[in-house]
Amino acid sequence: MNVEVLAAGVRRATKVHDGETQLSSVVIERAMSDEGAQSVASADEHDQLMKGMQRSDDGGNMLRRDGNVGSAEVMEVAWGPPIEVAPQKCAPCGLARMCGTIMVCIVLGLISLTWIPMVKVYGDGKLSHTLILLAFHILLFLLLASYFQTMFTDPGTVRKQWHREVAGTSQPAYPMCKKSNYFKPPRSHFDSVTQRLVLNMDHFCPWVNNTVGFYNKKFFILFLIYTVVTCAYAFFALAPILWSSSKSSSRSSRGDVVTNALMMVAVIFDGIFALTLTCFAVVHVYFAANNRTTIEHEPTWTSQFDLGAEKNLEYVFGRDRRLWLCPLYGNGPASDGHLWELDDGSWAGHPEAAVVRYGTGAIADNVMNV
After folding, report:
1. Is the dihedral angle over the CA atoms 319, 324, 330, 336 positive or is it negative?
2. Are 243 and 229 in contact (CB under 8 A)?
3. Are residues 58 and 107 in the same domain?
4. What's the rounded Cα separation, in Å, for the pair 145 and 326?
5. DSSP assignment, residue 86?
6. Are 142 and 226 spatial neighbours (Cβ–Cβ below 8 Å)?
7. Claim: this prediction has a pTM higher than 0.85
8. Which of 205, 231, 279, 326 does the annotation list as catalytic?
9. Distance of CA 32 to the CA centre of its chain
């Protein structure tokens, strides 16, 4: 009995750039054996070759036979979307990233403007003052933890496996990002600063020197919330002391003058940041509760991804509600940034189709736990 075998290797990622398209070619040798088959390709190569063989010329693919080589027939399959692409990495530090580094230093400097007068005023050892200072440091710790989590957590980018599966279909259901050469999952956007296709991208924030996306949006929102709470706490802790000091008729020492000056600066900045960032925090919490981003903010835009506030927040803060206000990753947000449940019970982002409907809830739960 003749057995058809995949016997030769793969010429991977042969890329031809013409400005918009890339051509990837796979050379397949089909050997015929009467006794059995032994494949020299690895399991991954075998799967990739099979996907290449399954593609037909009906979907705009080019199929060309180059003749016989010995007893083996060589066939070349070429198609537009690249199956092998370079992994997406953060772009080298450019001007925007350098400016972001300066912004990080400014943020830490502004925090120190509040920390110094708080310690000078309430660090006298009194029990009541110690408790006030302890609460302040707890809020400050949550603020800084959220800030650095936002800064150092990768917002998420397209998985190569998802891209390969989409490229392996006869008619890909997703548009190709011409800048990254990756297929675009639902709600993903190309970030011009980091030069990557970011999952559920919201915006690039220079204050955290990172893009806010699927995996670090929780930390960004917590950073806004804890900044508002910390600034408001410091404002109400320092303002009465500053007011009493300004009304005092006693002669102030040089040290008191410096302390009063620091308190005045802290009160002004804390008041301004508490008011302005409250607006930003409310807006981003509203977007999270409605499963939107700042890119999807148009009033006329109706979200098919809106599943109700509780379920929407799970896509940002995760399913473990005990960790919603903690700057910890835990199990991460629901789903994986590629698959999105729709309000009609179907799912968007499946590699083989733009919208699919799973037959059982168990499958849907497994998808959500990816």
Report:
1. positive
2. no
3. no
4. 9
5. P
6. yes
7. no
8. 205
9. 48
Instruction: Evaluate whether residue 44 is within a structural domain.
Output: yes
Asked whether the beta carbons of 28 and 40 are under 8 A apart, the reply is no
Q: How far is CA 301 from the centre of its chain?
A: 22
Tokens 């400097």 map to which residue?
A: 109
Are 336 and 187 in contact by the 8 Å Cβ rule? The answer is no
Domain range for 327 is 96-156+200-363
For residue 205, indicate whether it is catalytic: yes
Please say which residue of 53, 79, 105 terminates a domain. 79
Give SS3 for 102.
Answer: helix
Report the C-alpha dihedral over residues 221, 226, 232, 236, rounded to 10 degrees: 170
Work out the end-to-end distance of the chain between its first and last CA atoms, rounded to an integer number of angstroms: 43
Q: What is the pLDDT of residues 82-136, one digit of tens each?
A: 444 555 655 555 666 666 678 888 999 999 999 999 999 999 889 999 999 999 9
Quick one: CA torsion of 307, 340, 334, 280, rounded to 10 degrees? -70
Q: Which residues face 32 on adjacent strands?
A: 4
Whether 248 is in a domain gets the answer yes
